[in-house]
Design a protein that fits this description.
four-stranded antiparallel beta sheet, 0% helix, mainly beta, rod-shaped, Immunoglobulin-like, 142 residues
Length: 142
C-alpha cells in the first residue's frame, strides 16, 4: 500500500499558497487518489477546463496541477442579477508522488471536466523459490 500526502486546501508548501493562482479568484479542486494492481491514479475535478487550460508538472516527488476556468463570458461589461460564481477563476493543487511509480511513463487525460493522471507502478514484487534446481540443469552422472 502506498502513502500519499495530499496537501489540504489552504496549506503552505514550498513558499506558495496552495490552491491559489495569482490575479484570479481561486478554488481548490477535489481529488481522489486510487491504487490498482499496476497503477496509482490521481482523479481531479477541473470543470470547464480543457487540455490547453491545464498545466500538469512533476517536480521531484510532487505533482502540481494548476489551471484556469473560463466560462466564455469575455471581457464585456456584464450586469449580474445574482452571482455565486467567479467570471474567471483558477485552481492549483499540489500532491506528493509515491517513490515506487514511474514518473517518466506518466499519462494525463482530461475528459468531461475530470483530469486523470496515471503513474504505472515499478518493480512489481514476485515470489522467488529458494533452493530449487533449475529445470534445464542436470546433475553430472558419476
Amino acid at each position: 500500500m502506498y502513502h500519499i500526502q495530499v496537501y489540504p486546501p489552504g496549506s503552505q508548501l514550498m513558499g506558495q499558497h496552495e490552491g491559489t493562482v495569482p490575479g484570479m479568484a481561486s478554488q481548490t479542486p477535489p481529488i481522489d487518489v486510487i491504487e490498482t494492481k499496476g497503477e496509482v491514479i490521481y482523479i481531479i475535478d477541473v470543470p470547464g477546463s480543457d487540455s490547453n487550460m491545464i498545466n500538469v508538472e512533476i517536480n521531484n516527488d510532487t505533482l502540481m496541477v494548476e489551471g484556469k476556468i473560463d466560462f466564455g463570458l469575455g471581457t464585456e461589461d456584464i450586469n449580474y442579477l445574482y452571482r455565486e460564481r467567479y467570471k474567471n477563476y483558477g485552481y492549483k493543487r499540489i500532491m506528493s508522488i509515491p517513490p515506487e511509480v514511474g514518473k517518466e511513463q506518466v499519462q494525463a487525460n482530461v475528459r468531461n471536466g475530470i483530469l486523470t493522471v496515471k503513474f504505472p507502478k515499478l518493480n512489481e514484487s514476485r515470489r522467488i523459490n529458494v533452493n530449487q534446481q533449475q529445470p534445464n540443469h542436470q546433475t553430472p552422472h558419476q
